[in-house]
Every structure is written in C-alpha cells, then in structure tokens.
Design a protein that fits this description.
This protein is an alpha+beta fold. The protein is about 25% helix and about 20% strand. The chain is built from 16 helices and 21 strands. A 6-stranded mixed sheet has the order 13-19-12-18-16-17, with helices on both faces. Strands 8-9-10-1-11 form a 5-stranded mixed sheet, covered by helices on one side. Strands 4-5-7-6 form a 4-stranded antiparallel sheet, covered by helices on one side. Strand 6 and strand 7 form a beta hairpin.
C-alpha cells in the first residue's frame, strides 16, 4: 500500500539538468565521496558505529504511529524500529530491498491444506520494552484489533478481514467481542505458535504478514485509537516521549536482544523525529547535517532541486529512485456522469499527461504512465489503450471529444479532491482541471489535509457521493512487491470500506474480483503475474484510473548518515531499520 508520500512541487529544469551522474558504491565519509544514485545500488557509508542522536524531520504529521492503524509507506518503514511484524524486508538497495525474510517469526510460514492454512513459530526469548514476554496471542490480538474493529481503527488495509475464515455469526472485533476465544480462524496452540485459517489459498501470505498489523500488541495495554501515543515496543527502540503534531523521541529498548533479532543493529542512542517542519528547512538541515533523514521520504523541494542538480558536489549526494508507485487520478464510478464508461474514456483521453508531468517537476519525478501497474513491479506489461497524440505541445482531443459525445453528458460540473499540504498534488489537480474544461467538464478543487484525506474525505464513499466528487488525486505503491500486493486494495470490490477506503473509484467488477481471487490462489508465480497483467488491462478497459506518471523521488542523502540504501520495498525511501549517525 501503502499510500505513497507526497513530493514537493518542482520547477521544470532543462533535460540536461535532469541527468544525474552514474551509479557508484562504497563508503562515503565526506561530501562527494559517493556518487549520485549510489544508494540505489549499494550501501552508502556502511558502518556499525554506535551512539549519537539520529534526527528525522517531517513536513506534516502521520495519521497514526500505531502499527495497526496506518497505511502510509513511511510509517510501515519507520514503525519497524519499535514494532516487529512476523516477516519484513531485509535492508537492501533498489530491488534488492524486496527480499522478504523472517522477523518476529523464526522462519517463513509453513503452508498446509493447499495454501489455506499458514503456521508460524515466534522466535524464542523475544520481549516487550517492559521485559514481559511476547506471545502468539499478542500477534493474534494485533490482527483482530487492526482488521475487525474498523469503527475504531480504520486507517489500515483489511486483507485479514477479507481472507480469514469468518466466525459463525460474524466477529465484531476485540473491543466488542469479550469472549476469551476471539477470532476462531486464528489459533494459538502455545505461546510460540500462531496458525491462520483462510477461506481460500493465499500463496503470497508470507508477504501479507510483513504488514505492521502483525506486530504484537499486549491486550492489557491497548488503548484503542490512543494506543498511538505510547506504543508498547517489540523492536530495538521504544517510545520515550510523544508530543502530538510536534515530536516523537525513541530510545533504546533495554529488553531488545540481538540474539533474537538478526536484522536490527540498534546503532543510535536516541532517535528524534520533529514534525510539521517546513520542507525548505528540512532540506537545509539535511545539507548541513543537522537532520539525517526526511521521514516522509518525499524528496527535496523546488529550490533545493535547482541548486543540487547544478552543483556536482551536491548532486553526488542525491538518489533518484523508483518505488513501485503510480501517480493517478481516480474516477468515481458512483457519481454521474462518470458512472458511464464512455464519459470515463473521454477523461482518459482528455487529461494532458505531459502537462501534469511538467508541473510535477519533469521526467526526473516520473515517466509518463499508461498502466495501473508501475513499470518497476514484477509482472508489469507495457500497453496503452488511450494513446495521446500531440501537435507540438498541444494534445489532440479528437478521441476525447468523440467519447464525450457518446457519453451524452454535455457540460457538467464536478469536484476534484487533492491534499492541501501537497503542493505538487494541487498543481497536478489544477492541470487536470484545465485539461477537462476543453471537453465540457468544469471541475472545482477541494483540498483536505493528508491526516484526514482518507479517514474523512476521499476515502469515505458517503462523503464523495454527497459532495459530487467525480475525481480524486492519488498516489499508490504496493503493499508488498507483487501484483496482488499492488492491485487488490485499489481494485477489489471487497476492499471498499466506509472510511479509510483506498478503492477510490469504488470499482466492483465481478471479473476483476474473480481474477484477483484466482491469482492469489495460484501456486505458480509466473501464472499469477500473467493474471495480474490481465487485471491491469481489464481495469484500463473500465477506465476508472487515469495513470499519470510512474513516480520517482529525488532524495538528498545526508553525508552524516550511515547505512543508507534506497529500497524499492518502501517506495524508494531509505530503509530506516539500521541508519546510524556519525559522531
């Protein structure tokens, strides 16, 4: 999923200025020792040096730090410092970051019953930050609260709710169901063993349990929506203090042991995350070494980009990374006239993608897109059902007008949503509005903050219907690096939720739902990937998503940070698990 982070609006620069230096590797102890894009191919400034304070900053604040109530990639990444899922991704540069390994579990899952039952054993001796033992019951409870108490915790995905066998009569989650047994489809025969019983085979289940929703939560210390204020740690760091909207401080978890955790190094003494810091300030602090990591992984702002791309010594500290994500406009199939496929096809042809790419910063911020699946995701197949033709810089609207005439809607008014704290998204939405005016669609923009975009606005079907929201700006990256991990939450009709919804188009196509179910139940990886490509093509035939760009991020890599790798598994962000700081 993970919903992708925002990026800064970037002034377009010349094509020559967009070409970064070649890839390189090795350690970097000073500015200029590593090359541009080095962290996409190797570990930059590798070090096991302990101590010091590692400083993060973010221009906004996350919806939640609760590992069971989040769906942003940067929280998935960051939360592993204090919350250990059953599996996770091993820190590695680029596509090497997609390697899945056991985390809280001692090994990958053991499938039986044709892939419908999965069994995991927890590592022995793992403890919370208070010294109490972590048990399989805590993992079960974490899944119950995150997937079945959607009225309290609505922000994460609902995979487990979709695929676990239902309780007779249904299950209302642990806040309402006070029975000792809880969800019957998850068994904990002993404190180290957890068994998941599924409705149908799920051959990518090891990927699914990499979600922070499987990080253990002790039921006695759960505070529902307020758990975010003081998460009980199972990782290498624990909460020391949290000031909502201002700052989070993590310190070493004294009960974490390297003997039970082969992945984490616990290098800094302290990790400080400052919230709601201006992006221009973050960029300056990264260059000065006062901040080592931009938490949101959003990339530098316009002014900084212009500076670093024209200064060879600064450009050497940049990484331009893909992250298996797409920038797109979702078309709402439940709001007229976009409940008519001909109207939607007209929109596909009418939105000037080159204009959108330009306002988002040019090719360095993403290639033009024609598919739902990103071009760096396994199983991607190149095709274009709505080819755009240009005369110079002017888009030919012949096909757009032809389909709009078939639609028969005439001049219409609609609303397009964008996030108020994402200037690039606002600029892209404005470009979309300008394009659609030319075929008779008059859209007005409504802006809402990232922290409420999915919980209260774009992700609430009742709100979008009531407010005539026909179009919504969106970025999406895979929950895990497969076609199912990318497609299911934004295309499956069973993934539509009352709040926190990611299927913004509210697509509920029986054939697509069937193909998704069939794909995940297919043992052959090659066969699954073929079905994912078929789903992509059928989705584009339905014209519910307008792909705009295959997104790329431009990071400034702090020379003061160690163990820097830009991981595809976390949307091209740096992997946060083992970053250290020079003392």
């Amino acid at each position: 999923m993970r919903r992708s982070v925002r990026v800064a609006a970037i002034a377009t620069v010349t094509s020559a200025g967009l070409l970064l230096a070649g890839c390189g590797g090795g350690k970097s102890s000073n500015k200029g020792n590593a090359k541009a894009n080095a962290a996409t191919t190797s570990v930059v400034n590798a070090s096991d040096e302990k101590g010091g304070t590692l400083n993060y900053a973010m221009s906004d604040a996350p919806e939640s730090f609760d590992p069971g109530n989040t769906y942003y990639a940067f929280v998935y990444n960051f939360s592993r410092l204090y919350a250990r899922p059953l599996t996770t991704f091993k820190p590695g540069p680029g596509l090497k970051g997609n390697e899945l390994v056991p985390d809280l579990a001692e090994s990958m899952g053991k499938p039986t019953d044709g892939g419908k039952t999965w069994t995991y054993k927890l590592r022995k001796g793992v403890k919370y930050d208070d010294g109490s033992a972590i048990t399989s019951k805590d993992v079960k409870y974490a899944v119950e609260r995150s997937n079945f108490a959607r009225d309290v915790l609505s922000l994460g995905p609902n995979y487990f709710q979709q695929f676990l066998v239902d309780n007779p009569g249904g299950y209302k989650g642990p806040y309402k169901d006070k029975s000792a047994e809880g969800l019957k489809s998850i068994e904990t025969p002993d404190d180290q063993t957890i068994v998941f019983h599924l409705k149908r085979p799920y051959y990518e289940f090891d990927y699914l349990v990499s979600a922070p929703q499987t990080a253990p939560v002790p039921q006695a210390k759960d505070k529902g929506a307020d758990y975010t204020k003081n998460v009980v740690s199972s990782g290498s760091y624990k909460f020391e203090s949290y000031q909502e909207g201002k700052q989070l401080v993590l310190v070493r978890n004294p009960h974490w042991s390297a003997s039970t955790d082969p992945l984490r190094k616990q290098l800094p003494d302290k990790i400080v995350l400052k919230l709601k810091v201006a992006q221009s300030t973050i960029d300056k602090d990264l260059k000065a070494g006062n901040t080592q990591v931009d938490m949101a992984g959003r990339g530098v702002d316009a002014q900084t980009q212009a500076q670093i791309l024209t200064d060879p010594s600064e450009k050497a500290n940049t990484d331009n990374a893909y992250g298996q994500r797409l920038v797109y406009t979702a078309i709402n199939t439940k709001v007229a006239p976009f409940n008519n496929v001909e109207c939607r096809k007209a929109v596909e042809y009418a939105i000037d993608k080159k204009a959108v790419q330009k306002v988002m910063g040019g090719p360095i911020r993403g290639d033009l897109a024609t598919t739902v699946m990103p071009n760096d995701l396994a199983g991607y197949q190149k095709f274009d059902l709505y080819p755009q033709k240009y005369s110079g810089d002017t888009l030919d609207l012949t096909e757009a007008k032809k389909h709009w005439d078939k639609c028969g809607a005439g001049n219409v008014n609609t609303t397009i949503l964008a996030r108020s704290d994402r200037q690039d998204e606002i600029d892209a939405a404005t470009s979309v509005i300008d394009s659609l005016k030319k075929i008779g669609v008059n859209a007005r923009i409504q802006q809402y903050p990232t922290s409420k975009y999915f919980s209260d606005y774009a992700g609430v079907p009742e709100f979008t219907k009531k407010n005539n929201v026909g179009l919504m700006m969106m970025q999406w990256s895979s929950d895990y690096p497969t076609g199912f991990g990318y497609l299911n939450q934004i295309l499956n009709g069973k993934a539509i939720q009352k709040s926190g919804n990611s299927n913004l188009s509210e697509l509920d196509d029986p054939k697509i739902n069937e193909l998704l179910d069939k794909a995940i139940a297919t043992a052959s990886k090659a066969e699954r990937e073929k079905m994912y490509a078929d789903i992509d093509k059928r989705t584009m035939e339905q014209a519910v998503i307008v792909p705009l760009t295959y997104f790329k991020v431009l990071h400034y890599r702090s020379p003061e940070a160690t163990n820097m790798v830009a991981s595809a598994a976390y949307t091209g962000q740096y992997d946060y698990l083992n970053i250290g700081v020079k003392k």
